[in-house]
Design a protein that fits this description.
Blueprint lengths: L1 H18 L19 H30 L9 H31 L5 H21 L6
Helix pairs in contact: 2-3, 2-4, 3-4
C-alpha cells in the first residue's frame, strides 16, 4: 500500500507537468503542443523546468554527501545545505530570471514553444552548475 502511495505522488507531479503542455508531444502530425503565449504561461514554464532540473542535480549530490559524510561530526549537515541550495536558488534567482526571459518574449510579441521553455529552464541550471564547478566567484 505504501509503495502505491509513493507512485501516485510521483505520478501526480508528472501528470501536473504534462497537463501544462510544457513537454513536447508528437501526435496528429504536430511536433509540439500549443505555444505558450501569455506572460504567466511562459514564466511558469521556464521556472518549472529550472526548478526540476536544479533538483535533479542537487538531490543526488545531497544524497551522496549524506552517504559519504554520515560519520563526520559536522560534515553530515553539508547534505542539508546542498538540498537547500537546490531549492532556494531556483525559487529566488530562478523566479527573477524566468520572469526576465518571459518579459523579453512578451515584449517582442513572440510566442514560446514548450521545448524552448525546457531549454531555457535547463539552461539556467546548467549555467549555475558550470559557475559552481569553475569556481569563478572564488577568484573575485
Amino acid at each position: 500500500m505504501e509503495g502505491g502511495g509513493g507512485e501516485a505522488g510521483g505520478g501526480g507531479l508528472l501528470q501536473q507537468i504534462l497537463s501544462l503542455r510544457l513537454v513536447p508531444r508528437v501526435g496528429n502530425g504536430t511536433t509540439y503542443s500549443s505555444p505558450l503565449s501569455t506572460f504567466p504561461e511562459m514564466w511558469y514554464g521556464v521556472f518549472l523546468w529550472a526548478l526540476v532540473s536544479s533538483l535533479s542535480f542537487h538531490v543526488p549530490a545531497a544524497l551522496l554527501a549524506l552517504f559519504t559524510l554520515r560519520r563526520h561530526k559536522y560534515g553530515r549537515f553539508m547534505s542539508v545545505s546542498l538540498l537547500l541550495m537546490g531549492i532556494v536558488g531556483p525559487i529566488t534567482a530562478g523566479i527573477l530570471t524566468s520572469a526576465a526571459i518571459a518579459g523579453v518574449y512578451r515584449a517582442a510579441g513572440k510566442k514560446m514553444i514548450p521545448f524552448e521553455a525546457l531549454i531555457l529552464g535547463v539552461g539556467q541550471t546548467f549555467c549555475v552548475v558550470v559557475v559552481s564547478f569553475l569556481r569563478i566567484l572564488a577568484t573575485l
